[in-house]
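Session log. Operator J.P. requested a structure for one protein chain; no other inputs attached. Running the standard single-chain path with token output.
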Amino acid sequence: MKSRHLIFLLVLLTFFAGCSGDERPTPTPFSEDGIVEETPSGAPLEISISDLAADPEAYADTLVRISGKFRRLPLLVCENDPHPAPATWQLVAEDGSLVALGGFDSQVRSLLPNDLTMTASGIWQLFDGPVGCGKSASSTQIWYLKVSDIVSPSPIARVTLTPTGSGSQIAATGGEGDGDGDTAVSTPDENGNLPPTATSADGSAPNSTPTSASNPTQPSGGSATQTPTSGTGGTGGSGGSGGASGGTPTGTPSPTFTIDPNETSTVTPVGSSGTATPTAGSGTATATSSSGGSNPTPTTAVLTTATSSPNNFDIIEFDDLSSETPILELLSQNEAHHYPIIFDYTGTITVTAIGESTMNLVLEIIDQTNDVVQQANSGGDGALETIANAQLNIDQDYQIRVYDLNAVNGDYCLIFNEDGGYPDTIKGRISYEQTVNNTLNILGISYWCFLGTFEDDVTISVSPTGSAGDLAVALFGPPDFTSIGDVYADSIMSNVILPDDGMFMIGVLDFEALEKVPYSLTLTQN
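Structure written below.
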């Protein structure tokens, strides 16, 4: 088994709680006394989430194993005196039952998408203490799983990890009262979410040791786009949703990132059917943050390529969108899709999106008065559109708006990253029987989108083109960015059968994360 320690050490060093202020310390990934928490001995009891939630007392202090769909917990700002609880994420059963979990927070929140099926083991136990902000904190009892082992999916299951402890930076709020009443699993709201989690406004977390670390490198926006040549069939609708991310930046001030507009991908047809035409999909609007303060003055750099007014389109409102949350969606004719932005860091964001080859996609950031702050529409039909390093005011409300100038129905994929977080980005579109070459940024995930048809048999492979890199691939598809096969388990996924029509996304991840890694990615239809 290859060594995977370094990337997760870096992930832990770059993740911590905080909502405002110039300096945001990082909690140490180890116990306060420096002793690594041991994994409980003995075989875990496999139990369903439904049974565990229905009778939590029956399994108190028992080593159990559960499976469900991963879901992040939202973030709650505390002006001062936060009282966190250990529940930092949750697993949801098919019947809607859910339980809270704590541990491995920085890894699962940064590497795994919402609704990914996963299995975890740990001690089922009761938390009893104040939860909330300052004097408003109430005595709360929460049953939760103190996770000691992520069984699946990879890459977490393939490395030795140290749990992040009791989840000092995030708290799930429970009911009111003095704690003398009945105990229960934390109750979800009407949307199935646990109550928000708590952090201090100055970014500090109680009982944590500040640690500084370097920030990840911003992704490059250059990419090639090409028209699929086979197996592209009809386009099926796919849902995308964004949950709140609880990630926060390191104590080291984040540098201003720039995107090299001259960087492009190279594309090589693998078979006779592949005819790739690289096009420049470089960043279009570049803004830098002003010095000092947590809310630099937003910059406005609106491009005027778009000619149709989205105000005449049907507006489709989506859930709030967090950074590093990929979106797969069907854009119908004369629709405009709106995604409210959740800020976790400095407010400097980079947005990348690409649609089908028939679409002339327009990518915009609009403010609370619907004025366009940034716009990208420079590549023409089928091109990657990028808004690079747009500095926004984190105290204001913004939305990402997506629409098409060609009045066609088509799928698109989208993601944004924020300065201080992980540099995940969409690189472009790939077709069957093609190879694309690009560069993977440190701690970042490169996504490539392609159109597929139900029951297509595909093989995906990636390899570094230099001496560095330990690469792995993952495949996600409609609906709702569903994972297909093992997630980041190997550099090759062979004979994967697509479960639907529509747009799919390939993720490329480097486990070494020592430097930028040039790579070659190939997609073939068997």
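Operator note: The domain at 266-525 is CATH 2.60.120.380 (Jelly Rolls).
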